[in-house]
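Need a sequence for this fold. Nothing fancy.
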């Protein structure tokens, strides 16, 4: 069975364009990767768990903040390269990336050294307009950007 993940794509409107909040994964594997490495704030959940509740939980864990109150726009699901199925929602709001803080994880590093180190799950966040976000985001999540753009172009501005 495929692993399941749920997340929230936060977006804001600035100067006539749309920007989205993306998260860069922490840890040594991702340290030198940039383009094609960023993600929406998301995390895994078990089958039988409410995906929207998991998305809310993961946003809190990865940013240290609740997503803003507002209408959640369903962006559907996408299958990533490794087979993980990600379900996402978009919500309009803002987040000061300098005030965001992620939970942490521990792993053996360097490999086979017997030493463990602690790393942030997310080492940085960034706001990107949609073309820049397309270059930054994991390829398997790019369709969420397209779906958001389509949704925003077909609905009146609030």
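Here you go.
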């Amino acid at each position: 069975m495929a692993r399941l993940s749920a997340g929230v794509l936060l977006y804001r409107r600035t100067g006539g364009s749309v920007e989205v909040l993306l998260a860069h994964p922490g840890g040594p594997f991702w340290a030198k990767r940039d383009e094609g490495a960023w993600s929406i704030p998301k995390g895994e959940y078990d089958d039988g768990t409410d995906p929207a509740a998991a998305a809310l939980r993961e946003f809190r864990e990865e940013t240290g903040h609740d997503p803003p109150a507002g209408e959640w726009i369903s962006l559907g699901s996408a299958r990533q390269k490794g087979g993980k199925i990600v379900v996402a929602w978009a919500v309009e709001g803002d987040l000061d990336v300098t005030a965001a803080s992620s939970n942490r994880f521990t792993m053996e590093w360097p490999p086979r050294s017997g030493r463990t180190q602690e790393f942030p799950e997310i080492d940085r966040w960034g706001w990107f307009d949609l073309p820049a976000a397309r270059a930054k985001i994991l390829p398997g999540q790019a369709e969420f950007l397209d779906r958001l753009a389509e949704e925003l172009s077909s609905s009146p501005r609030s």
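For context: Strands lie at 4-14, 17-25, 42-45, 73-79, 85-92, 104-108, 116-120, 122-129.
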